[in-house]
Design a protein that fits this description.
230 residues, alpha+beta, Tumour Suppressor Smad4, 6-stranded antiparallel β-sheet, 5-stranded mixed β-sheet, 22% helix
Length: 230
Amino acid sequence: MEGPAATVRHRTRHWTLNTGEKLTVGRSTGCTVRLPDDSHFSRWAVALELVNGAVLVSNTSETKPFVVRPPAGEDQVVAPGAAARPPFTRFTIVLAGSVAEESVEIDAAALRPALAQDPATRSADTFTGPGQFTAAQHRVMVELCRPLLTASGTAARPATYAEIGDRLALSPQYVRNVLKLLRENLSGYGIPGLVSDEHHPTEDFRLPLARWALWNSWVTRSDLGDPRGH
């Protein structure tokens, strides 16, 4: 079939996914990609299709979720019956077995090269959100988001106050105070979920703050360089 296609890989095998076709993943003998004979894997776990130039990932299991793992950033959980259209040229579907995980790799670079610039890499000059932040505050935010921009899986999480302090030669308490002030400023502009209230009693708001910065392109991969700004 003519036109760009995606490539699907599992262990040592690979398949081509063309427009108008469906590729299935699961334990059933009828699946395109056969998972090991482990009852923890659904017989029909995943369906892959090309829709409007992107890979649509559907969870065809009745009970088992799986995750979509980008090259860097947080895993996206896809619940039974749900579907996702990951905005990446390459990503991995991770399914949990009773003994080990199984990974199915998707390479969609031939479909839409523009996807290589995912939401976390957009130029910061597109940001039009609230607040005016100093260069020092921005450096702290960059370090907060660094693991989410460079790691994947469980390692994709906000940096701790100590980790930020180590990279910037600052005390963890100073870092905490900087981020607290930023959260309060943003909350004053109406950004929800960044300060303590009856619905958010915890004092650790590093993840929602980092997500806000990344989703609004206030921090991007282009900011990752010398952490001390030299």
